[in-house]
Write a structure and sequence with these properties.
Largest sheet: 8 strands, antiparallel
Radius of gyration: 23 Å
CATH class of the largest domain: Alpha Beta
CATH architecture of the largest domain: Alpha-Beta Barrel
Structural class: alpha+beta
């Protein structure tokens, strides 16, 4: 993976700020684990864009929002089982955010290998459940070859011809989608395919159910181009954008998700920037010998003068 120089120094204070904002969400869950939390509410507590909240939270915390909620509810249940010996299991389940005792038992056994009843009976010493630390002062350790750098660019606005993939992000499915889009492009515009493709991922595969994933495969086209029954025209807003560039071998497509983790969990806090409420996207350029490709991860940003300040 190729490394790129950057003019942006590390900013440990802003990294700590992002962790504090994640911890703010954790504290909200801890105070009332039974509350039916919404993404909108939790994102507002953290001061993050609702659009990018899931991915930023996972990159910073090392677990998804849903995993964090379940873990904290299980921690509350474990504590109640030990220190409230006479409280019925059903009451503990409801007070800790589970629909009933069966729901709690299933989640507890899956996470810890025993039933809540057995855990209460054994009351083991030194029983510990992972917690997010309260005093994180440095970025997570990433492999050396993930030490890519980021710059902030002004990206052009684009008109995109797009086809949507619904379901798993498989290599075959995406390849077939671009093949169909390419046929339409060449027959409609009477020109060779462009060197670049654009991919807009509306769903994070680590967080959403596979069957509900959505991805738009796109080619840039002249403004005013007409679509078809299948091909939809989309406007991609330009402007201030954080861009991570890397070169990958053809066999390294699986590392794209790792790049996003580095981008959102390491670089985003260091640069002290705020994502805009617009989708992130990826720009691809395949090598002439087809041995690999260059990828740019693009994260639209709020204008500098509109970015909030967080204590």
């Amino acid at each position: 993976m190729k490394q790129h120089a950057s003019a942006y120094p590390a900013k440990p204070r802003t990294f700590i700020d992002y962790h504090r904002r994640v911890e703010r969400v954790v504290d909200v869950i801890l105070v009332n684990p039974a509350q039916p939390f919404t993404v909108k509410d939790l994102a507002a507590h953290a001061g993050f864009s609702e659009f990018h909240f899931h991915r930023v939270f996972k990159a910073i915390a090392g677990e998804s929002v849903a995993q964090c909620i379940i873990r904290l509810r299980l921690e509350a249940a474990a504590s109640a089982l030990v220190y409230q010996q006479k409280t019925p299991l059903t009451q503990i389940a409801l007070e800790c955010g589970f629909s009933d005792s069966a729901h709690l038992s299933k989640a507890f056994r899956k996470a810890h290998g025993c039933s809540p009843t057995q855990f209460r009976k054994d009351h083991p010493n030194g029983f510990r459940i992972r917690r997010i630390g309260k005093a994180i002062t440095k970025a997570p350790d990433y492999p050396d070859d993930m030490n890519v750098n980021v710059d902030i660019q002004t990206m052009p606005e684009r008109t995109l011809a797009s086809l949507r993939l619904l379901g798993p992000y498989t290599h075959e499915g995406i390849t077939d989608l671009y093949a169909e889009l390419g046929q339409w492009y060449q027959s409609s515009l009477r020109r060779p395919l462009p060197d670049e493709t654009v991919s807009i991922t509306w769903s994070d595969p680590s967080l959403a159910v596979e069957d509900t994933l959505r991805l738009d495969a796109c080619y840039a086209v002249p403004a005013g181009t007409k679509g078809s029954d299948r091909v939809v025209m989309r406007y991609l807003e330009g402007g201030r954008t954080a861009c991570l560039c890397a070169s990958l071998a053809a066999s390294e497509t699986h590392r794209i998700s790792e790049l996003w983790d580095v981008f959102l969990g390491h670089w985003l806090p260091q640069l002290s920037i705020e994502p805009a409420d617009r989708p992130a996207y990826e720009v691809y350029r395949t090598n002439t010998d087809m041995s690999g490709f260059d990828i740019t991860l693009c994260l639209p940003l709020k204008d500098a003068h509109t970015e909030p300040h967080h204590d």
